[in-house]
């Protein structure tokens, strides 16, 4: 049995989330971030790959309790809450990545406390009528970068965030990733600390 924090890639089919349903039904190129739970509702931030037009915003408004265009690429949406979102965002699970890959089908990269917590999550989601398939799991040590941290560091480097004459600001980079600037700052801080420790440990060896 695996011990310690685990990064797991899972696919959830028959996902009951209304926002996931919207993305599938309207064939939108969008990801979901910043989920906030209410008593009976869930708030989502939809981040689009391309500039959204008024027609799409209108369709989203019709199919949700409330919505608000935040920018050319982001829409805040409130819908009725679903069991899967409640499990994901109210438990001790860190949602690192979300990707809609088919009708009511979502690929998640999750960080869970241990193998027992992962099994418990799968059981509860399955009891709600959704199907969970675990694609892979990796034990994460304190010194290892998660896939999400690697992805963010690579993008930051590629876009010139670490250049002497910085080519992209923290806020701009956060916008491209669909997360807030404070959240990105914290992710970068932890990732860079791990990277520096790994480098120094290798030097000592």
Write a compact overview of the structure shown.
This protein is of the alpha+beta class. It contains seven helices and eight strands, in the order E-H-E-E-H-E-E-H-E-E-H-E-H-H-H. Residues 145-195 form the HTH bat-type domain.
Topology diagram in text:
Blueprint lengths: L5 E8 L4 H8 L4 E8 L3 E8 L5 H9 L3 E4 L4 E7 L2 H8 L2 E10 L2 E8 L2 H13 L3 E9 L7 H12 L11 H8 L3 H24 L1
Antiparallel strand pairs: 1-7, 1-8, 2-3, 3-5, 4-5, 6-7
How would you explain this protein's 3D organization?
- The chain has 205 residues and is an alpha+beta fold.
- Strands 6-7-1-8 form a four-stranded antiparallel sheet, with helices on one face. Strands 2-3-5-4 form a four-stranded antiparallel sheet.
- The longest helix is centred in the C-terminal third of the chain and has 24 residues.
- It is globular, with a radius of gyration of 18 Å.
- This is RNA polymerase sigma70.
Arrangement of strands in the largest sheet: 6-7-1-8
Helix content: 40-55%
- Supply Rg: 18 Å
Task: Specify the number of helices.
Answer: 7
Global mean pLDDT: 86
Q: Report the order of strands and helices.
A: EHEEHEEHEEHEHHH
Distance between the termini: 30 Å
Strand content: 25-35%
Characterize the overall form: globular
Structural class: alpha+beta
Query: In CATH terms, what is the fold-level topology of the largest domain?
Result: Threonyl-tRNA Synthetase, Chain A, domain 2
Question: How many strands, what sense, and barrel or not for the largest sheet?
Answer: 4 strands, antiparallel
Total domains: 2
What is the β-strand count? 8
Question: Uncertain segments of ≥5 residues (pLDDT<50)?
Answer: none
């Amino acid at each position: 049995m695996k011990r310690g924090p685990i990064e797991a890639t899972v696919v959830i089919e028959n996902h009951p989330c209304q926002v996931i349903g919207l993305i599938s039904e309207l064939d939108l190129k969008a990801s979901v971030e910043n989920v906030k739970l209410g008593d009976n509702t869930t708030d989502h931030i939809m981040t689009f790959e391309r500039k959204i037009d008024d027609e799409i915003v209108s369709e989203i408004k019709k199919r949700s309790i409330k919505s608000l265009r935040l920018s050319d690429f982001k829409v805040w949406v409130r819908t009725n809450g679903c069991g899967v979102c409640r499990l994901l965002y109210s438990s001790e699970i860190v949602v690192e990545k979300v990707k809609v890959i088919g009708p009511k089908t979502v690929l998640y990269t999750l960080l869970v406390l241990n193998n027992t917590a992962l099994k418990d999550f799968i059981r509860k989601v399955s009891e709600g009528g959704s199907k969970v398939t675990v694609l892979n799991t990796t034990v994460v040590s304190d010194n290892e970068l998660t896939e999400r941290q690697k992805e963010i560091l690579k993008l930051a480097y590629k876009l010139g965030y670490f250049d002497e004459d910085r080519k992209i600001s923290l806020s701009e980079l956060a916008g491209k990733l669909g997360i807030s600037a404070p959240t990105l700052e914290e992710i970068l801080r932890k990732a860079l600390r791990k990277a520096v420790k790994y480098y120094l440990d290798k030097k000592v060896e």
